[in-house]
Amino acid sequence: MNCPTCGKAIRGRALFCPHCGQKVTTAAVARPAASVERPPFAIEEHRTAERRPEGCRRTMTVLILAGLAFLAVVGLGIGAVHMGLRDRQAAAREAAAEHLARGTTHLNQQEYELAVAEFGMALQLDPSLEEARQGLEAAQERLEGLPVPTSQLQDEMCAAYLNEMTEAYEREDWPTVFGTADRLLAANPTYRREEVDRLLFEALYQSGQQLVAQERITEALRLFDRALLIQPDEERVTRARTLATHYITGLSYWDTDWALVIDNLARVHDLDPAYCDVRLRLAEAREALGEQLAAAQDWCGAEEQYALALDLVASDSLSRMHDDAAAHCVARALTPTVSLTPGALDAGTPTPAGTYVGRVVRSEEIGSQQMFIRGHVLDEQGIGVGGVAVTIRAWDWSVTSISDGQGQFSFDGLANPVTYTISLADLPSTPLDVAGEWGKLTWISFQPAD
After folding, report:
1. Among 10, 143, 380, 410, who pairs with 112 as Cys (CB 3.0-4.6 Å)?
2. Given a cut of 60, is residue 210 above it in pLDDT?
3. pTM listed for this prediction
């Protein structure tokens, strides 16, 4: 038969393609009787084949471990947001090597169903891993010749697995619990399933909590996800997963979007102030946002962030920054500013010299169901002015953008085709109303009146 993914020929009843590593979903075709040279692969030869179940139990094994591979790939994806593509590829190679090692162990122990699944997961993570490809072929060859165990032998084997699993649980040996549970479920997925699920669920939760205590949050999240597959919506695990998810998400935006960092870490801190290092992390994020606002001369906003950071940690330098921002905030409030009512220009009221006046420059078709408003803050000579806080409002919603070194600001991805009011927060200006339209990019500018 041929692989439905890559189209290359596959020998025997393969569950995973030895070329691309993808799961084979088409019906298996019997292998020709002609002998085929076995690929070189260093394994321990066993002449006495241990009896293993086949049929639906073998399929269940592969499905369970394939599901674990999916969760592993998802966990790697979450971590990659912060580490970047290069680190993500390195993590994938490392995980593939772990699956290769486990597959080799299962193969040498004649646990061929588990070996096939592990080698298949290794190839999914790293298709270039030739050892995994050779191991997969070797395990599939041996799997085809296994006899079906008697019911008595199967029950004795499952009872031994459950006893080993229980003893490992009592001494909190979680890896042994997981490995024994995998072997038991591969042998007979229905054997005392309620008891097996109870032990496995608790082991996953307790092991995840230990990983959280070691600040290995991404690994803990994978275990919480496995536990919720057994008992969906269980309160303790759901809470633990929520904490881990917000913590990871918050750190993924570190140094790129302090508002999102704070939003996620504040949720963690509200649920559990002692969670990992969330208190210190949240204080650092609020201090960083305060510095960003101070650089944009949003002194009152900076004062607020510094005050919230001081609620979390005590710091002399942070106190000085807070006091300085507070003084600037008071001074800004006492400074007289030019105030114009909307429509003043239309009514014929002259605009004071130096007041920034907004105007629509042009509108461009962007050929998509999106709407953007972008513009520039320019001085009298038409040179861009950086560091200006530009605010866009609609009803009770508002957001602020800081102009860059060229004086440009952007409001992308607006969600409602309404009229937006745009003004400069730090400079005397007349507000400008701009209509948001689907499929259009509207350019505006603010420049001092003569």
Report:
1. 143
2. yes
3. 0.47
